[in-house]
Design goal:
The protein has one domain. It has 3 helices and no strands. It is an all-alpha fold.
Length: about 70
């Protein structure tokens, strides 16, 4: 049996005792944390984004848009 298979079996045993509502909350919390980190990085990049003197406004806007997309 592979290590991954063993991990899956252990997780299944742990999850058997958890209700669906609690599982949904756990998953929601996991993704919220990741979303908060991504949002922080985007805001940090936008605040530090400076257009080069004499630079193209179009290129600057595209660069900033890239942070949000």
């Amino acid at each position: 049996m592979h290590y991954v298979d063993t991990m899956i079996i252990e997780l299944q045993k742990e999850m058997e005792l958890i209700e669906a509502y609690d599982m949904a909350l756990m998953i929601k919390e996991m993704f919220q944390q990741k979303a908060k980190q991504e949002k922080f990085e985007i805001v940090k990049n936008l605040h530090s984004c400076k257009m080069a003197e004499g630079g193209s406004v179009s290129l600057h806007v595209l660069k900033m848009k890239g942070y949000v997309d």
